[in-house]
Design a protein that fits this description.
The protein contains two helices and four strands, in the order βββαβα. It is an alpha+beta fold.
Length: 77
């Protein structure tokens, strides 16, 4: 999506360090069994990306219940 993102401990898990000068956005693919934190992060930054963010979920989305919660909090603000 145009940013350099890495796990702080080198494990590809949160917490993560993000280096970017703006966020171009675009399409990405992510395994559905990743932590809901990754999907929520994409929801949170999507509106700030120049071209929006489209996520293709690969496999079953196991964190599905958490995504409407993130969207509801965003809508409240």
């Amino acid at each position: 999506l145009g940013a350099d993102v890495r796990g702080e401990a080198g494990t590809d898990c949160p917490p993560v360090v993000v280096a970017a000068n703006g966020l171009p956005g675009g399409r990405c693919r992510m395994a559905g069994d990743r932590s809901s934190q990754f999907f929520s992060a994409l929801l949170l930054v999507g509106p700030c990306a120049a071209d929006g963010v489209e996520v293709e979920v690969v496999g079953d989305l196991v964190s599905k219940p958490y995504l409407p919660m993130t969207a509801a909090v965003m809508a409240a603000f």
